[in-house]
Amino acid sequence: MKKQLKYLFSLSMSAMALLLTTTACSPDDHELSGPVVSPEELVEGIAFAVTPDANDPNTIHLKSLVKGATPLWKTPSGMSQNQELDLQFPFAGEYELTFGVMTQAGTVWGEPYTFTVNSNNFGLLSDPIWTNLAGGVDENGQGNPKKWVPCNMNYGIGNCSGPVMYMSPDDYPNPVFGTGNWSPNWDPGFQSWLIPADDPYMDSYMTLSLDPVQGCVIDMMRKSADGEEKLAGKFSLNVADPKHPMITFLNGTFSLHNKAMDGTCANYTNEIRIIECTPYLLQVATMRTNSEGPWWLVWNFVSEELKNDPSILPTEGPDLVEGKPVAEPTYEDLATSLFTISGNDASYLATQTTFLLDEETPYDYMWWNPANGAWEWINGYGSSWAPAYEGIEDFALTINKNGKAELENVEGGAATTFTINGNKIVFADEITLLTAGNTSIKGKEFMVMKCSADDNEVVFGVPVEYDNAGAANKYLCAKMTIKPIGGATGPIEIKVDNSKLEVYQEANKYLRIQFYNPWAGKDDSAWPIDPTKLKLKKGQKLVLKYTVSGIDWTGTPRAAFCCNIDGFQWEPDCFTNFQGQDFNTTGENVMTLTNETGATYNFYGTGSLQVSIQLDGFNSNPDIADAVSKAVVNVTSLTIE
Q: What is the pLDDT of residues 437-492, one digit of tens each?
């Protein structure tokens, strides 16, 4: 096997903008002939200069010679509006750029300009992203092609379990390279309406390589129900900003995606963002531009070697995605959060609050998962090293806004004062929250690991282990609930406007009743419910009562809630798993959706809520669309209990 160099190359722009002013122009600057500029004026030597570096002819200096107009460059490394910039070309060859200007009369482009780089310069191979992306080169300058295939499962690396994910541009308007710098809002895995596991696209591939003669080469094959689409071309990489590397696909090639999504994003070719690239994982982001509104689509790929043999993934070392460093919990205003009490239909800011121990798990350990970048429960309560605690009913910790605290428990209780310091609560005297066997949670200073009135959960922790950097990465925690205050009880009713219910056919097989879908591009007022009220605390359930008339049913169809909660599936799997239930064709249906995620689930913004009912094969009308058009849906109630 040929030894791989650690050198990599970058067709990158080192943008060095020397913004010219009307009072500081070089003698070579030129005025345009008039308000209307012709392409014939935008030529090399008059409007712009292309100059090889005197010491390194593989570095090309570009300079605009025009004053009074913004320069525009189309280069092998992408677009730029800088007055001056440098391009570096490790490989010999002919290259093309186009110069233009932006004037008050509009944008004008000159004719393409071709220049030649006469020799290779592998000394420019410097960014490690290229070994990961395209295999690097050996000591003779020969490439080692790298083949990427759509991600087909959760390999335990990166932020993905399937071929594509969704990420909000509101959260990440300009996502930074590296797994620890961004996270998806929704990882759908495989969905029948998006990319199912048996989609031909999953057999597609991109092979990227570095060729000393041809340069940056890409061979790709996209497979769909229409057959195989094979393309060969070139690509360029812009790593001038290492936090935002971008790849451009040339000669008819494109960033690989399934054919059904061709119209979803306007750009799959120019300056596509690379947001992760390791020897085993490649993730790129394209912006959705269709009527559903702007969202990042994150396309996930793994190396062919990893897909063929997942055991090659090392358990440690530089080839893995670097684990995320410990991040302590943060709060905008912990003092307010600790005194917030949530009722059925409103939250209250109290002057005093009392914490009780959670009846099922009064304490446990929390650890920092560097792969996920999150604090997680170890779930060891009740084991020999975290024995059960007998004093749950005797515990109460009361704090008030005057800084006084009183602890009641089987150890005699304590009265003291406290202050809040960032993400910690600090008591004037040492207190013991609980002792179980040889395990004791005590101290003056407690990290507030969680504080959520909506989830009815407050967690105080003391550190018990530290990582190599000295950061506490494991806490022994008391898990507490918030003592409720008086107020309205019973279910919360969500009003439903039946006239706004969206009833439609899906995949020519199913009848869908849509209550809310944030990707539909509608105003909140257009939905049959107030979507801001679609919030389920952990353990709460959504109860829907409704009828469907106007269809001549046959047999016993199945119905299911469809939503974006982890673990929920869409058609057809939703009818055969825990979501499905027999549909009552002659009377009222009662369906429930229970939040078992362990935290409050907020549908608004990134969730959705539909009911799907089997129709194909379960009604006498073979025209599914016609059958759906005759359906009359009446919701009698929608409640949260």
A: 889 999 999 999 999 988 889 999 999 888 767 889 889 999 999 988 754 456 88
Beta bridge mates, 479? 459
Long-range CB pairs of 17-20, under 8 A, 24+ apart, other chains included: 17/82, 17/83, 17/84, 17/85, 18/83, 18/84, 19/83, 20/64, 20/67, 20/83
Kindly tell me if the per-residue pLDDT of 618 is higher than 80: yes
Count of Cβ atoms closer than 10 Å to residue 72 Cβ: 20
Average pLDDT, the chain: 85
Per-residue pLDDT tens over the stretch 588-605: 999 999 988 877 788 888
Give the position of tokens 């191979």. 125
* Cα–Cα distance measured from residue 293 to residue 299, given in angstroms and rounded to the nearest whole number: 18
ω into residue 557 within 30 of 0, thus cis?
no
Residue whose tokens read 């920092």? 368
pLDDT digits over 357-387, tens only? 998 899 998 888 765 678 888 777 887 678 9
Q: What is the four-CA torsion angle of 196, 197, 199, 203, rounded to 10 degrees?
A: 150
The answer to whether the pTM exceeds 0.90 is no
For residue 6, name the pLDDT band (cuts at 50, 70, 90): very low
Q: Are 628 and 504 in contact (CB under 8 A)?
A: yes
Return the sign of the alpha-carbon dihedral for residues 545, 550, 554, 557: negative
Q: Which residue type sits at 428?
A: A
Low-confidence winner among 42-51, 268-277, 304-313, 505-514 (lowest mean pLDDT): 304-313
- Specify whether the CB–CB gap between 613 and 557 falls below 8 A: yes
Write the secondary structure of 33-96 as one string of H (helix), E (strand) and C (coil): CCCCCCHHHCCECCCEEEEECCCCCCEEEEEECECCCEEEEEECCEEECCCEEEEECCCCEEEE
CA 218 – CA 248 distance, rounded (Å): 11
| Closest CA relative to residue 637, chosen from 587, 600, 584, 590 | 590
Two tokens at 181? 């710098």
Q: How far apart are CA 402 and CA 115, in angstroms?
A: 75
Burial track 501-536 (b if 16+ CB lie within 10 A, e otherwise): bbbebbeebbbbbbbbbbeeeeeeeebbbebeebbb
Q: Is the pLDDT of residue 560 over 90?
A: yes
Cα separation, 237 vs 215, in Å, equals 12
In whole angstroms, give the CA distance from residue 553 to residue 272: 49
Whether 145 contacts 121, CB under 8 Å: no
127 beta partners: none
Sign of CA dihedral 567, 570, 575, 581: positive
**Token reading at 141:** 């300058």
93 to 117, 211, 582: CA distances (angstroms):
5, 11, 67
Q: For residue 101, what pLDDT band results from cuts at 50, 70 and 90?
A: very high
CA distances (Å), 466 to each of 56, 367, 370, 463, 472, in order? 49, 10, 13, 8, 4
DSSP state of 565: S
Tokens (6 digits) for 485: 């205050």
Token digits of residue 155:
């390999």
407, β-bridge pairs? 397, 414
